[in-house]
């Protein structure tokens, strides 16, 4: 296994956000991290990426190396993180934001252009980042992450489809599938179970700071398990690519 999480715990002050999570995943996959609000999803992936500001314990090993022992340059090459809400304090253009991929380790013009192509953000390059829509901002910071990490590395994304329209989601999903196919490990926090079912090879299900379940998508995202975990009835509905999971709505009487 290339990513091995051992006994990971995370605290926010006195509150335990993640407790004793041990889980692993191989390269060349997309892993969806699901769970209710407050279940510890974001805290877990931030700790994996090494950017949690609070107290953590446990270890994160990537391709045989404990990430906490890696230099900043080595970490930048192998792991990239995208937050749930992109924040760029300076008055940067979209092109300058993507150029931040080279802040720690040099990135070539070819690497930057390849990321711009993958996310189809050419027409946004000279616009102020702050003036972009939420979905456009998300695609720009995703392009920065794609340019930063070397193919075969670890991409950690917290709700990357926020504010995107359907066409944008389709473009981003295709880019992520290509990265996983090329050998990267793509770790995605998702609330949308339809997207999790469509994209993920493996699912990690967080509940109250613990790992409720982990394993192949088809086994974790079963109708019975989802109904028990989310309190909503589910059924399988035929989709264009593969069956998807959708909540079953029952009309109320009267």
As a percent range, the share of strand residues is 25-35%
Number of helices: 9
Shape: globular
Instruction: Just give the CATH class.
Output: Alpha Beta
CATH homology superfamily: P-loop containing nucleotide triphosphate hydrolases
Largest sheet: 6 strands, mixed
What number of structural domains do the residues give? Answer: 1
Q: What do we call the CATH topology?
A: Rossmann fold
Distance between the termini: 54 Å
* Mean of all residue-level pLDDT scores: 90
Q: Strand order, main sheet: write it out.
A: 6-7-8-3-9-10
Name of the CATH architecture: 3-Layer(aba) Sandwich
Helix content: 25-40%
What structural category do the secondary elements indicate?
Answer: alpha/beta
Q: Specify Rg, calculated over alpha carbons.
A: 18 Å
Q: Would you identify the regions where 5 or more consecutive residues have pLDDT less than 50?
A: none
Instruction: Report the order of strands and helices.
Output: EEEHEEHEHHHEHEHEEHHEE
């Amino acid at each position: 296994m290339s990513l091995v999480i051992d006994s990971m715990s995370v605290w926010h002050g006195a509150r335990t956000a993640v407790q004793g999570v041990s889980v692993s995943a191989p390269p060349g996959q997309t892993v969806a991290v699901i769970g209710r609000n407050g279940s510890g999803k974001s805290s877990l992936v931030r700790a994996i990426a090494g950017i949690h500001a609070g107290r953590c314990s446990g270890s994160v090993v990537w391709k045989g190396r404990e990430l906490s022992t890696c230099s900043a340059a080595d970490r930048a090459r192998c792991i990239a993180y995208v937050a749930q809400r992109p924040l760029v304090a300076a008055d940067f253009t979209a092109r300058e934001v993507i150029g931040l991929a080279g802040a720690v380790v040099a990135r070539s013009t070819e690497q930057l252009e390849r990321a711009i192509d993958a996310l189809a953000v050419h027409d946004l390059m000279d616009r102020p980042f702050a003036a972009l829509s939420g979905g456009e901002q998300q695609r720009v910071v995703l392009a920065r992450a794609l340019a930063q990490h070397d193919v075969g590395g670890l991409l950690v994304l917290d709700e990357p489809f926020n504010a995107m329209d359907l066409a944008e989601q389709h473009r981003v999903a295709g880019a992520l599938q290509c990265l996983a196919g090329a050998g990267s490990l793509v770790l995605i926090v998702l609330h949308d179970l339809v997207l999790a079912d469509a994209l993920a090879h493996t699912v990690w299900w967080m509940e109250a700071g613990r790992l409720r379940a982990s394993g192949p998508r088809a086994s974790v995202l079963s109708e019975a398990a989802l109904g028990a975990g989310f309190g909503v009835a589910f059924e399988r509905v035929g989709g264009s690519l593969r069956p998807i999971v959708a909540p079953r709505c029952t009309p109320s009487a009267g």
